[in-house]
Amino acid sequence: MSETIRLTTAQALIKFLNYQYICYDGKEVSYIEGLFHIFGHGNVLSIGQALEENIGHLKSYSGKNEQGMAHTAIAYTKQNLCRKIFAISTSAGPGSANLITAAATAFANNIPILLLPSDTFSSRQPDPVLQQLEHYTNHTLSTNDAFQAVSRYWDRIHRPEQLMQALLHAFEIMTNPSTMGPTTICIPQDTAAEAFDYPIEFFDKRVHYIDRVSPSSREIDGIISMIRYSKLPVIIIGGGAKYSEAGDVLEKISLMCDIPLVETHAGKSTVISSFTHNLGGVGILGTSAANKIVQMSDLIIGLGTRYTDFVTASKTLFDIHHTAFINININRMQTYKLDGFQVVADAKSTIEAIIPLLVDYKSAFGSSIAVLRSSWEEEKSRLKVNNALDGITIKNHFSADVMQEYKTQLRTQLSQASVVLHLNDMLDHNAIVVGSAGSLPGDMQRLWSAKERNTFHLEYGYSCMGYEIAGALGAKLAEPSREVYALVGDGSFLMLHTELVTALQYHYKINIVLFNNAGYGCINNLQMDNGCISSGTEFRNIEDQIMNIDYAKIAEGYGLKSYQVTSIEALRYAVIDAKKADQSTLIEIKVLPKTMTDGYEGSWWNVGIAEVSHSHPVQQSYFSKVSHLSRAKKY
Ligand SMILES: Cc1ncc(C[n+]2csc(CCOP(=O)(O)OP(=O)(O)O)c2C)c(N)n1
Ligand SMILES: [Mg+2]
Fold it and tell me: What does the angle CA 183 – CA 111 – CA 480 come to, to the nearest 5 degrees?
């Protein structure tokens, strides 16, 4: 008989979390950094009690919104290249329901996180308890069943001993690069407090090994012959390349073979932006240089990319009849896309394996890489000049009168694109920028120059509004010695910003750079681009007046050091002063709408446009969509 230890389910859970390690490239580190929680009915007397009894080395933080705190945890893990995670504990009912959006964010981005939503009573003795749904036809359903669609592993335990199997399954999924993502273990509140004699070996130190998967010789042969056959190969750097730290080998192969690099939102900052062969973001949020090179290309090598619509311009960016694909991905399903040659292997290991076999290979791009790069630099210089009212506005959607109205109401002339470029110059080279939704991801992806590796943090798998500020706290937890900046729109700020209080509470300094254009700017662009009138996307009151909200004052109320700026000079002062501050800061920048960057060549997006309408512009948009679709790959 093995020795046992009598613990509650919650105590066993906390004890187990203390003994999990991962080993990557021979480096062993503890895997669980800690636990975020919002206590309530369902977890305070079980998980809360277990933390009080013996927290071990885990850190414990109290969040302000379940979605927000889980987004903080996701950002922490993303910044740590998926090698360290947090667990999340929520109360039963609404506390758990609030977590679902974050679970989806983790799912879409393949980010591991351990979600522990409390559940209603297993015994059913007090049913219906406060916050229980009480289904009439299926008593086993609770709020937590909604996590099934957004979890890579989902379980509900009704007995303390089930915890052991559940945890082992969850940790296998989270530490397996091809399946990693959110795992959910729902724990009824009575089960969480019940005791069991756990075998002590369950709590032995466990090391989860993440070995790099090498390509097979068949796969290597296939890659080499396709590259040799190609004259114009291009590598798309995806998130998988970043997580595998493929920066050095990518620079090497790119220089050696003259293969240009382009980036997805998740892959950006795997290689720094000033690298000669890096042409930047590709697709809908792409630079003109990257999109042109991809359009010229006869072979796309997708390295750790999911080929989302934003990367492929809804499968129209490539010449579908003449472009071949090599899909290198740790996840086999991803390699099936676009009928590519499938390579199920680690990004870095694969590039490492092919470099010695291509020493005599050079693409036929010649000088075009440098020419495209320099014409993009010229475009950036054009955008940097702040002439918001003299021409650089999106497709003249707004009349001169409406632009003037914004200028008067917001008391600014600043162009967003210009601000982003200037801000980029003002920050430290190792500063981390975090973004997620609105028009800023487009500006960041196109314009931001990542000066060091892993300094660009864009959640654009789910593009969840409200991620930015919570995410900045997560990045700061991962990199406490660096300045971290959330680049956030006013709409996203309004959606969710309260983890800034958590940052203040635990003295983690984050900087919030809020771009106030008084509306859901990118959605306004989307509707007006497709023939609709501006409606429901500008922040106007019922008298049709533009709302000028003072976000700097709101920030001051929270206790942040805050600034409101309407000029580049004032921005410079604010950024310098904010760097000196010990506490968190918020810089509100009033920017004019329609002054973000627009799409460049090839950046078409397939969106649902009305097939029938009385509006001529809507009809026109629909016909244009049909014509684009005729050139798109169908699957
Ligand atoms: C949670 C969530 N709800 C809705 C959306 C759809 N959406 C994407 S961007 C956006 C507006 C963003 O406005 P803002 O943050 O002010 O950025 P701007 O486009 O003005 O730069 C909306 C509503 C979303 N991405 N996430
Ligand atoms: Mg806005």
Answer: 120
